[in-house]
Amino acid sequence: MILVLVGPPGAGKGTQAKLLCSRFGIPQISTGDMLREAKRAGTLEKRYLDIMDSGGLLPDEAVIGLIARRTVEPDCGNGFLLDGFPRTVPQATALDELLASQGGRRIDAVLQLDVPRPLLEERLIHRRTDKRSGQIYHLVYNPPPPGAELEHRADDRPEAVSKRLDAYDAMTAALLPFYEEKQLLHRVDGVGKPEEVTHRVLSAVGRSGSGGE
């Protein structure tokens, strides 16, 4: 089972990714996590480190190279879930070519979590992190305990949230139609309790053999 999970910041991808991976016994591959780990391990070329340090986006070949190495590891034998990649049509095309080169592998389903923008903004803007534990709380839905040392991350502040959502919309504008045409895209209502969304996601995966919605 090879899955691609897409959705804007605040859509709940992290929660659903963990549940899906547990259900199907496959690893979650987050490009963000891989890049941070490569940076810590010193395995990323200096030119790419410089781009990361300046806040820029790495070229596609750098990210595809990391994915190529990760997806041939033993725990990916039964598949994997990609979180945060691809985000553009060229990346999606490169991913298809990579999978084809690995013995004809291919994506089983692309899952898009749909959440209205006002709710995304509410989820993100009210999010706080405990500096000591790293635990993430929400001032409305999951309030922190007394005494928590809270931090409001820069990218969760209103202006940054608006820019992040605009950037996501612009970047994926062509990606979703690309997968829809391939009958791989399943749009899932991401509003509700996590277990309700999980039920919808699993239903969509179950329909993946019969094409997109």
UniProtKB/TrEMBL annotation:
Where is AMP bound in this sequence?
Answer: 31, 36, 56-58, 84-87, 91, 153, 164
Q: What GO cellular-component annotations does this UniProt entry give?
A: cytoplasm
- Could you list this entry's UniProt keywords, alphabetically sorted: ATP-binding, Cytoplasm, Kinase, Nucleotide biosynthesis, Nucleotide-binding, Transferase
* Chain residues that bind ATP: 10-15, 127, 136-137, 192
The first-level EC class reads transferase
Q: What is its main location?
A: cytoplasm
Keyword Secreted (UniProt): no
**What GO molecular functions are on record for this protein?**
AMP kinase activity; ATP binding
Name its pathway. Answer: Purine metabolism; AMP biosynthesis via salvage pathway; AMP from ADP: step 1/1
Per the UniProt entry, what are the Gene Ontology biological process annotations, in alphabetical order?
AMP salvage
The residues the entry assigns to the signal sequence are none
Subcellular location, in the record's words?
A: Cytoplasm
Known catalysed reaction(s)?
A: AMP + ATP = 2 ADP
For this protein, the Enzyme Commission number is 2.7.4.3
Q: Per its UniProt record, what Pfam families does this chain match?
A: ADK
Q: Which domain of life is it from?
A: Bacteria
Q: What family classification does the UniProt entry report for this protein?
A: Belongs to the adenylate kinase family.
What is known about what this protein does? Catalyzes the reversible transfer of the terminal phosphate group between ATP and AMP. Plays an important role in cellular energy homeostasis and in adenine nucleotide metabolism.
Question: Assembly and interactions?
Answer: Monomer.
* Domain statement: Consists of three domains, a large central CORE domain and two small peripheral domains, NMPbind and LID, which undergo movements during catalysis. The LID domain closes over the site of phosphoryl transfer upon ATP binding. Assembling and dissambling the active center during each catalytic cycle provides an effective means to prevent ATP hydrolysis.
Name of the protein described by the UniProt record: Adenylate kinase
Q: Report which gene this protein is encoded by.
A: adk
